[in-house]
Structure of Phosphoheptose isomerase:
Amino acid sequence: MLEQRIQQQFFESADLKYQAADLLARPIADAVQAIVGCLTAGGKVLACGNGGSASDAQHFAAEFVGRFERERPGLAAISLTTDTSILTAVGNDYDFSQVFSKQVQALGQPGDVLVAMSTSGNSANVLAAVQAAHDREMTVVALTGRGGGKLKELLAETDVHICVPHDRTARIQEVHILSLHCMCDAIDTQLLGEQDHA
Ligand SMILES: O=C(CO)[C@@H](O)[C@H](O)[C@H](O)[C@H](O)COP(=O)(O)O
Ligand SMILES: [Zn+2]
């Protein structure tokens, strides 16, 4: 019984990934172009999100600064979810909704990219970070689900929206991490040339 339930989750995740391959290949490629353009012009990537998406922001930044699958010089990326002193000071002195936007205001430069993750598209601190990124003339790569929520409404035409066609947070997160890995792979390919995995 339990095994069936577990298998069901695998099937649901795999089905969604098949569906998303068609739908998301274009916006993921657009995100890669935006990030490669930013990095080659001397810019950097900032990443944010809550809960599981906070882990994804850190995971993504680690693959930039350290490496993904190939040796290359580190790429400029900072996760806005890691500094507990900043998070507690801003959360305590201002409001939790400002924990990311304050960092975007302090660190963001025109031409930088903000990777903003929210499965609901409705987390106030992620929405405020997107607004701060626009004020700083940054491009936003938004990873969402559930139709994109309020975040979708905030996006500019030059931004990129990777919206997973599902309602469950866990399933959406599983496609987000796959999308981030696709981006790492494609960015390395753009910077270093093709390499097979065979
Ligand atoms: O990982 C999970 C659920 O799978 C949770 O930690 C989840 O990320 C948290 O509830 C977040 O606060 C949800 O925020 P969001 O994705 O709607 O912006
Ligand atoms: Zn989770």
Summary: The longest strand covers residues 139-145.
